[in-house]
């Protein structure tokens, strides 16, 4: 399949925007009952009974009900959504921040389940599974040569904590089969990708979403960085679609002083709920920077808004997504759920940053595409703020409501089209697949290398750059990489580092020439 490179920005922004719709909700207590004051629900129930009992053809009542629920919710707002049982378990697992399994990252390579990497200190690593191994059987279930969907593979490897599974693996590096018993355990799904030093006094923490474990992960990272000498801190919320409100609030509390307002919500009755910082902040005085972009939403905007409105730090990047609606998750007996908008949230100065949605969900999602076309992502002057509500921070800085957090320091997308298209290509899954296949051909080429040795090796060769160019052509992606050779080599080195070492090493390489990081450090 050939992909026109000019569509990469739009495709990626659309995918991320959909993820924000499904993934960016706030954590309010769930309720199992929805009370309606009129007889409309009786009409719906009767109609379903009529169809079930009298309709001329046989129909699936569940399918009709699900479609009816989705249609009703679509009339409300873009963030009131229905989650079917098949998706709810996975979503809940992701936001819980853990699951029970064997602890492997895998890739379906050709016809077999290939291990990219084992989770550090996880069950598979402890049992002796290695990167590059193929899992042929899970107990007696054959996994290769069947083109099984990913969810089926997961179901074979997951189970109850402490339960055991026998796997038959093929180890290519030794050309032999092994039978290995693995005891399933709790596997963390990390929401903090990296906590590292950009220089001797500047720390960096990357948060990919706000799950139940995010504050704990963040605090551990912050503590480590302070011990290493960090006096300034960069929090990276780019492409973070949100999550639990309480996690964003807890992180904001680390930077704000006692009784500073963090966020407040207002429901349809005008009831206000205000949340203030406590005395417990562990980083109330160091320099602080928050990175955002057009895909930073929901809880990300709460954190950025609290920092900006209290004059606590500098917001760097591009205007955020603009989600200021609060959802409550309500469960149905069949395992499905509905997330219903029950309030709006406001930043400390009183601004709502929810962008308009009166034209429907389709136009709401296309707003991200319009930012590309209007030039907003490239030029600060293209951000439309003259007609939006203005607010003042305690120190007199003007901030804007009506559609996302406008950064204090604007950093555009790369202006050179070829470079921009290359970046979007490198952020898709094609790079990870290429790197795995390269390692699979000759994993011994990196055996025993320390990280510093690895970096020298990658800088000193064009072998993988040339191979990646050929790989793209073979797969119908006709993009010439020569004009962005240094950029491509940096991404290649970063992805190799991720698969050979860990996520933190990935960011250590990738951030070396990051435009927003460069702006912060200068």
UniProtKB/TrEMBL annotation:
Pfam families attached here?
PDZ_2 (PF13180), Peptidase_S41 (PF03572)
Record keyword Glycoprotein present: no
Organism field: Flavobacterium nackdongense
Describe the location of the Tail specific protease domain by residue ranges: 175-356
Q: Is Hydrolase there in the keyword field?
A: yes
Q: InterPro entries this protein is in?
A: ClpP/crotonase-like_dom_sf, PDZ, PDZ_sf, Peptidase_S41A, Tail-specific_protease
- Which SUPFAM superfamilies does the UniProt entry name for this protein? ClpP/crotonase, PDZ domain-like
Q: Which UniProt keywords apply?
A: Hydrolase, Membrane, Protease, Serine protease, Transmembrane, Transmembrane helix
Q: Which Gene3D superfamilies match?
A: 2-enoyl-CoA Hydratase, Chain A, domain 1, 2.30.42.10, 3.30.750.44
GO BP term, example = signal transduction
What GO molecular function annotations does the UniProt record carry, in alphabetical order? endopeptidase activity; serine-type peptidase activity
| Residue stretches spanning the membrane | 7-28
Name recorded for this polypeptide: PDZ domain-containing protein
Which NCBIfam families does this entry report, sorted A to Z?
prc (TIGR00225)
GO cellular component term, pick one: outer membrane-bounded periplasmic space
Q: Which family does it belong to?
A: Belongs to the peptidase S41A family.
